[in-house]
Amino acid sequence: MSIAKKEYKRITTKTLVDMKSKGEKISMLTAYDYTMAKIVDNAGIDVILVGDSASNVMAGHETTLPITLNEMIYHASSVVRAIERCLVVVDLPFGAYQSDPKEALRSAIRIMKESGGHAVKLEGGKEIKDSVKRILNAGIPVMGHLGLTPQSIYKFGTYTVRAKEEEEAEQLKSDALMLEKIGCFAIVLEKVPAKLAEEVAKSVQIPIIGIGAGGGVDGQVLVTHDMLGMTHEFNPRFLRRYLDLYKEMTGAFENYISDVKSGDFPSDKEQY
Ligand code: KIV
Question: How far apart are CA 250 and CA 160, in angstroms?
């Protein structure tokens, strides 16, 4: 059982900021459905992210761009029904907030009202400042997302490490300060040099949660299906696999198929 699970009955955005001030690391994983969310929450995770990575992991799309607001609400409401303790953050999908702040607020309100999620996450810095402010003004907690922002993959052209050059690193630092100033409760920092990520984490009071951003930040997030080894074609350096579920599950399916074919399943005890 995690230290956090013993100490906190329910995780809120304030809990996360308090954890940072005490030097306690924050754990975050993705979930998109009821069954997975129940296991992850029960294990003591601090935050579940209903990520738009559902577009890849659940729907098999090449990028996160195709997933819709309705689909995100469906995934998020399944997760919310499962959890008892963790904070649930829901990604605003591509196309649900980029055109103007009013649209961003409408989308965030739909997520909060229809899924019961506790906060939303948006990708980007100064270009989405007005939208973030509008959502925050409505009382909806916002988590930022800087560095590699997969919704902009066609602008970047690759999924390689971001902000290695001075100019991009400076912009990232100023975006993080801006997001803190306008009221975001945390920021995800994806695939940036560890030294830069640590510098950003030290420059703000709100938690910086890294993925491929090294150990000098305030918490870590991984995609659950990746860390369980269910996906095996994705092998970035930052990914630690805790299981090889692809292999385990394949073995179980093969055994089942063979038992059905041979007539071994069901046995006398497995029927009425
Ligand atoms: O959608 C997602 O899973 C994410 C994480 C990779 C941070 O945004």
Answer: 31
